[in-house]
Design goal:
The protein has an eight-stranded parallel barrel with strand order 1-2-3-4-5-6-7-8, surrounded by five helices. It is globular, with a radius of gyration of 17 Å. By secondary structure, it is of the alpha/beta class. The chain has a single domain, classed as Alpha-Beta Barrel (TIM Barrel), CATH 3.20.20.70. It has 13 helices and eight strands. The chain is about 40% helix and about 15% strand. Bound molecules: phosphoenolpyruvate (PEP). Phosphoenolpyruvate binds next to strand 8. The site of phosphoenolpyruvate (PEP) has 14 residues, from strand 8.
Length: about 250
């Protein structure tokens, strides 16, 4: 059932795009309706090298800063990695965890997703935990199983109180960057399964508080229908988040 208390979230994942100047230009081009938006809450996840510039250019806005990945340790000899403390220090409030591109190209597993989710919560970063099936899994009718196992493993050893603060993103891998969106009713069905799994790992009341986003080729002309679905509480937007006009149109979906 839809719950009016869940404030929707629109999160932009810039992936490995934009330099410091392009980041500044993006924020300058955003209209006040986006800069001061609180419903939906707007989160922008630039590459690590743009986090500082993004934070500066977000000044005085309600926009939230997110990272695209992190290590689970506080510090140490982990060349090339970034810790949750470093993300807090630079002004992040959110972090993407287990994006399918990290799972596919960088060896991210359900185990590392769980460690990172625990570490993010420990340092008061809101994790946006990405789950979703590959095309061959959907064709083999394994979607529900895949998503249930990913959610169960992500939530191991996490208390109900903390689970309530997590954001999930259902991102069917075959819909990411392909221009193919998952049918809204089907995306809603899978988001409902994610909510049921969260309830099994905590309780119904907790699951009703958890925000579940849809991601996969979200565009200005698809967002309204996606947002009308009772289990879809927002969107994780890749390609369309790079352009201030299309991102603003998605944020202003109403
Ligand atoms: C993503 O990167 O999480 C994503 C959903 O990308 P796109 O919107 O480009 O499909």
């Amino acid at each position: 059932m839809s719950n009016q208390k869940r404030v929707p979230v629109i999160a932009g994942n810039w992936k490995m795009y934009k330099n410091v100047n392009e980041t500044r230009d993006f924020f300058r081009a955003l209209p006040d309706s986006v800069r001061s938006c609180t419903d939906p809450m707007v989160v922008i996840c630039p590459p690590f090298t743009d986090l500082h510039s993004a934070k500066e250019n977000m000044g005085g806005s309600t926009l939230q800063l997110g990272a695209q990945n992190m290590h689970w340790q506080d510090e140490g000899a982990f060349t090339g990695e970034i810790s949750p403390l470093m993300l807090r220090d630079i002004g992040c409030s959110h972090v993407l965890i287990g994006h399918s591109e990290r799972r596919q190209y960088f060896g991210e597993t359900d185990g590392t997703v769980n460690r990172k989710t625990l570490a993010a919560l420990q340092w008061q970063l809101i994790p946006i935990v990405c789950v979703g099936e590959k095309l061959e899994e959907r064709e083999a009718k394994l979607t529900d199983n895949v998503v249930i196992v990913q959610v169960q493993r992500a939530l191991l050893n996490i208390s109900k109180e903390l689970i309530a603060t997590i954001i999930f993103a259902y991102e069917p891998v075959w819909a990411i960057g392909t221009g193919k969106t998952c049918d809204s009713a089907e995306a809603n069905r899978v988001c409902g399964i994610i909510r049921e799994t969260v309830a099994m790992m905590s309780d119904k009341e907790t699951a009703e508080q958890v925000r579940i986003l849809y991601g996969g080729s979200v565009k200005p002309d698809s967002i309204k229908e996606q947002m009308s679905q009772p289990h879809i509480d927002g969107a994780l937007v890749g390609g369309a988040s790079l352009d201030p006009k299309s991102f603003s149109a998605i944020v202003n979906f109403r």
